[in-house]
Amino acid sequence: MKNVTDSFVFLGHWPSAGSFGFNTDILATNLINLSVVIGVLIFFGKGVLSDLLDNRKQRILNTIRNSEELRGKAIEQLEKARAHLRKVEMEADQFRVNRYSEIERDKMNLINSTYKTLEQLENYKNETFHFEQQRAINQVRQRVFQQALQGALETLNSCLNNELHLRTINANIDMFGAMKEITD
Hints:
The protein is mostly helical. 91% of the residues lie in helices and 0% in strands.
């Protein structure tokens, strides 16, 4: 402290300091003012500035540490997401392959079913054709038989006299009676 007061006393002994006034030497006054301000700041502000810088340094380090932790978590989540994506893509590919094979299998089943249905329809058509053919043949046979029977009856009626007609009726009645006794 003695040095500070000595410098003020020393300033009083300057030859130009004999009177009170403004110093126009800007360089000398700025250097003195700056050295006083810097000295006061260093002496009184050293602890405060040090504390502020330490706090700022700790906040920066904490922010960096937190950022690194978040980065690590983000990388971990990214790897999990990539693994999940690969798994989902594999499942999708497997599903696609299975679905395509299932579609092909269904397609083949449908084709086979259609062929079987067509074959059954062809069989039904043939059976219907044969049935209708047999029915037509039977109708023709019945018609021919009816016409032959009618022709025979007409021939018999024209050739038979009453006596021959009665004997034929009695013979047929006897024959039906014998058939009835056999069945009973």
